[in-house]
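Fill in residues.
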């Protein structure tokens, strides 16, 4: 999402955009955060940095996902307050919601249970930014906000099979299967879970609208409002990539959270955000981008 936020800021006329990279400023290190703030002297921080991945990556690296995401966020917000930054936009995750949250997920349900086990360490680490935002506003009057985006996708996504989320993973799998003439593609789980997806470009619009118009620490969902089963998703991506083989469901692999779908009314009410890109259009854009990238790497 960072690249979309950057391009949108440039189009809006922002003249000074500072983008720290991990090789220059590892935000897990408090000293690096301090150096980054001194070098950039920001008025506004949009905290998009995270260590993320799909179910497999979350299962393999739960301690890293917890520690690195927690330390990045908590130290950054604390030092931003000390430094006198005017506002911090903290990006949470739909993984922070309880495993069995009633659909559509309402922000008021955020504390009514434990997150789905496979991504709980990541979800809880991000959730602490909400606690911190509310505490620092109450005690220090510090202006920070906390947004809860649903699963993101789009051009520029991570297509690495070791760490990618479901949409880029399926796109890559189907394209490679078609190229190699594979009669079957294996998909994790049984296809019954549902997910909601938001195009990264739309998410960037929501983040910047919130940065401009929203000044409270109550959490706000960012989503498209459209829920789809993994089975229907896989069949749709197979059709859009032109793959005509079989889908085999590996039920020995975890399904993850049973359902995900957000109540997106507060984003529209508080800062006027409503997703506008249809899911199929967004998928086509993502598939086209990945195909072009593959051509460039051959």
């Amino acid at each position: 999402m960072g690249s979309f936020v950057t391009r949108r800021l440039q189009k809006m006329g922002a003249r000074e955009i500072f983008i720290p990279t991990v090789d220059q400023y590892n935000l897990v290190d408090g000293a690096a955060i301090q150096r980054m703030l001194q070098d950039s002297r920001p008025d506004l921080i949009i905290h998009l940095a995270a260590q993320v991945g799909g179910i497999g990556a979350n299962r393999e690296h739960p301690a890293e996902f917890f520690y690195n995401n927690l330390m990045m966020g908590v130290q950054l917000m604390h030092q931003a307050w000390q430094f006198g930054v005017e506002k911090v936009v903290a990006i949470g995750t739909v993984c922070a919601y309880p495993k069995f949250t009633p659909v559509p997920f309402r922000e008021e349900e955020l504390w009514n249970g434990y997150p789905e086990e496979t991504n709980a360490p990541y979800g809880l680490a991000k959730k602490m930014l909400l606690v911190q935002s509310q505490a620092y506003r109450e005690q220090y009057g510090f202006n920070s906000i906390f947004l809860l985006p649903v699963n993101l996708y789009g051009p520029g996504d991570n297509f690495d099979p070791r760490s990618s989320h479901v949409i880029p993973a399926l796109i890559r799998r189907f394209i490679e299967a078609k190229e190699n003439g594979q009669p079957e593609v294996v998909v994790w789980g049984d296809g019954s879970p549902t997910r909601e997806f938001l195009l990264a470009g739309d998410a960037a619009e929501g983040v910047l609208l919130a940065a401009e118009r929203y000044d409270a620490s109550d959490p706000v969902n960012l989503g498209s409002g459209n829920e789809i089963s993994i089975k229907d998703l896989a069949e749709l991506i197979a059709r859009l990539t032109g793959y005509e083989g079989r889908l085999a469901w590996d039920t020995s692999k975890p399904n993850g959270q049973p359902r995900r779908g957000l109540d997106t009314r507060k984003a529209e009410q508080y800062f006027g955000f409503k997703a506008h890109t249809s899911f199929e259009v967004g998928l086509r854009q993502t598939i086209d981008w990945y195909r072009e990238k593959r051509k460039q790497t051959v």
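The first strand starts at residue 44 and ends at 47.
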